[in-house]
Prior knowledge:
Structural class: mainly alpha
Radius of gyration: 15 Å
Shape: elongated
Order of helices and strands: EHHEH
Strand order of the largest sheet: 1-2
Distance between the termini: 20 Å
Number of strands: 2
Largest sheet: 2 strands, parallel
Helix content: 25-40%
Mean pLDDT: 87
Low-confidence stretches: none
Amino acid sequence: xxxxxxxxxxxxxxxxxxxxxxxxxxxxxxxxxxxxxxxxxxxxxxxxxxxxxxxxxxxxxxxxxxxxxxxxxxxxxx
Length: 78
């Protein structure tokens, strides 16, 4: 599982995930071996609503997604 941008201000992670996907889908023998050996799940942006809202650390609802694992609320975190 590869994820990026859980905090909207982590713009650098978008470039890292993009580079990872480009490498993984390339003709490289290493990439081919990885694709043959593993199943990859890539979520390039975990917090798109926070990015669109221009937030730095929180989602659109103003919550830090890293701090909400024990307090799931499907209305706030669909």
